[in-house]
Amino acid sequence: MESERIAIERDGGVAHVMLARGDRMNAMDGAMFAAIGETFERLGSDPTVRAIVLSGEGRHFTSGIDLHYAMGQFAYGGDHGRGTESRLRHIQRLQDAFTALETARPPVIAAIQGGCIGAGVDLASACDIRLASSDAYFQIAEVDVAITADLGTLQRLTHLISQGMVRELAYTGRRMDAQEAERLGLVNRILESRESLLAAALDMARTIAAKSPLAVAGAKMSLNYSRGRTVEEGLRHVAMWNAGALVSADLGVALEARLSKGVARFEDLDL
To answer: How far apart are alpha carbons 79 and 77 in whole angstroms?
Structure first.
């Protein structure tokens, strides 16, 4: 279900999710956090969705959390213990909204233009792949408003770029431009304009959507599972996966297409 905060377009197995608050730099308020979580939970379990592109309307991907919303939500004038418990649950709900991208069955490709600030970095870090326009920049800006980033940046970004660089960005709040982000490996590719950025992201999504959805889902599952674990644990996990998945019809379809130089067409996954 779309909301005033999120717009969705579908083209076959590709879903394009857009942050739809461009007049406010896609600042995230409670309605947008809820819409992000609900959208990715739904699309992430939809068997007809094979790849998802995430973008933001307007000049910027997102300016991060709406500061007016933050001030209203995290101030508490009652009992300190109850206030702490309330804030804890609130933060966890926001975390869960972004975790929905990571746990979604299909890969999520972020198309980032302009500013990707604060909670925007948390959001982008939860995606599988990040493409950026040449004017994009990234900023862990929470430190500038006396907040410790708590929606995934400090936990996920260290698996994408070096620990030392994450610490520098988190402690200083400085901007990192798209060129630096590409050199560090945070961004897969830089495109000149928003139009070429979206075209590249959608083209990549269509390429993924044409592959075996079972193989892609298995790759995402294995990559997520292996992060933070030993190589041995990751190997055993993917061995168990393939022990079951290799009996799928997808293997025969793929091999037949390769031998005949034809196009493989795979069935959707089950619910």
So the answer is: 7
Helices 67-74 and 80-103, interaxial angle, to 10°? 140
249 is written with which tokens? 């019809």
Give the residue extent of every domain in the chain.
6-209, 213-260
Tokens 């948390």 found at: 122
**Interval 162-208: pLDDT, tens:** 999 999 999 999 999 999 999 999 999 999 999 999 999 999 999 99
Tokens 């990571």 sit at which residue? 102
DSSP string covering 85-122: HHHHHHHHHHHHHHHHHHH-SS-EEEEE-SEEETHHHH
DSSP secondary structure letter of residue 126: T
The CATH number of domain 213-260, selected from 3.40.50.150, 1.10.3720.10, 1.10.12.10, 3.40.1080.10: 1.10.12.10
Task: Quote the CATH superfamily of domain 6-209.
Answer: 2-enoyl-CoA Hydratase; Chain A, domain 1 (3.90.226.10)
Compute φ and ψ for 186, nearest 5 degrees. Answer: -70, -40
What are the Cα distances from residue 63, in Å, to 69, 73, 74, 160, 228? 13, 18, 19, 21, 30
**Residues contacting 111, CB < 8 A, separation 6+:** 53, 54, 55, 61, 131, 132, 197, 198, 200, 201
pTM of the model as a whole = 0.94
